Amino acid sequence: MDQYDVVVIGFGPCGQMASLQLGQIGHSVIAIERHPQLYGLSRAGHVDDEIMRTFDRVGAGEEFREDAVAWELYDMRNKAFGGDLLMSLDWSLIGPHGHRGHWIFYQNNLELALNHRIEKLDNVEVHMDHEVVDIDQDVDGVEVRYRNRKSGEERTVRAQYAVAADGANSFVRNQLGITVTPGNDGPLQLVIDTVQKRELSFEFDNGQFADPERPGCLFQLGKTHRRWEFTLLPGETPEDMTIDKVWELLEPWVTPEDVEVLRHPVYQFRESMTDEWRRGRIFLIGDAAHILWPFAGEGMCNGLRDASALTWRLDLVMRGLANASVLDSYEGDRKPNMQGWTDLSREIGIPCIITDPEAAARRDGFLKAVQQDPSLMPPPTIPPGPTAFSRDADPLAGAPAVQGQVRDGDTVGLFDDVVGRGFQLITVDPTVLDGLTEENLEFLASIGTVVASVGDENATVVDEEGTYAGWFVTHGRVAVLARPDFWLYGSAADAEDVNALVADLRTALTSARTADSQPAVV
Fold this sequence. Notes:
This protein is an alpha+beta fold. It is 29% helix and 26% strand. Among the domains are: 2-67 and 107-183 and 271-347, FAD/NAD(P)-binding domain (3-Layer(bba) Sandwich); 405-510, Glutaredoxin (3-Layer(aba) Sandwich).
């Protein structure tokens, strides 16, 4: 029986990301996908600066940005044409991870960019047009039996761990009997994806038209595709959304001379949260673990966060650099963050899909008042950062690891590109690094930590735009310790605390399993 380090089930963007991150570290991976080729139909259409940083991490960012478009402005109007502006958000700013905060893209191009990186790895084996028919585990590993969907031939492989990225109808989740808690259901939504036949430009683009007569939205998907969405009205069914109806809805914008319709499915807004994200050596990521409304554009983003949060843990455990109890914190890190995104997506979405004229008028009046007095808007849900694996009582635990432009000699770029990725110990005071003990230095080296000061010419790299100086002053800390998934494990108040911070990480990674930790097999 062939042996791998990890078997990844599902080869959409989340399965691709898990396979790629593990493969680039050096682990042997087999990925199994039931479709005969990359899916070929776009679902996701937005990523944020954190996910753009993740693409750079695996070397796919440059190719991805060849077609992706930086999102400048997000508008909400009460009609697509001639309506009142209800809200306008400037989305052109640089986010904490060093990239523009919002990007719109065509998913096929993302999958190709990821796949091009995977094809360069001899240690990642991809089996398309194969479906998993059984999965089992014992205290030492996982066995997966899968079938060639054309020939019917079956094969069984063994791995240390399995990652289920097999979607909302996850075979793995159902096979394990893991339950799902449903959330709020919303209306039916018609999604129309198109590719342009000529250059298109609209006065109102990339936003919501919250028209109670037919709520909807229009977004670019990269440089050559566009998506319209329309809420089905009471009494309408998916069967009513024929291609003739599609062109009727698109008529104010385009005709068949302008675009080709690629797909026009109807789906329902749904929320769900898997009750267990792990069963022994098997982990769920992406839609297999959670589903949310699409309004924040963070569905796929959160699946990619799952992959990043899981892979660094698996890597350290498989290399013997961390105790297996580190895996226990995966769900605790991700689930609260995911619930926050679920709540925020619903909060954004509900005002956009109102079909009752009186309720819409009240909404319009409120949002116009907010334009005059922003304090009237209640604070939105802010998804919490991951703190299940972080330093206790640390004021920056679970905060984003800020990234800025730095200079090393003649080389100027983002910190990750210039200095390096992985665990990062960063300070604005080079002298605090002088006091690191030999034991702590050896530990940091063993897990591949980048240790750097950012400041003037005396530092490891120059803080080219003052990003780090301002950030450290704001928080009153001298150093931070970031995890490979770009979240802070913790921070230090002074030189002595830097040693304590590193020692705390060493203890957290290597300490034995606690009494309430999940056993290897359930």
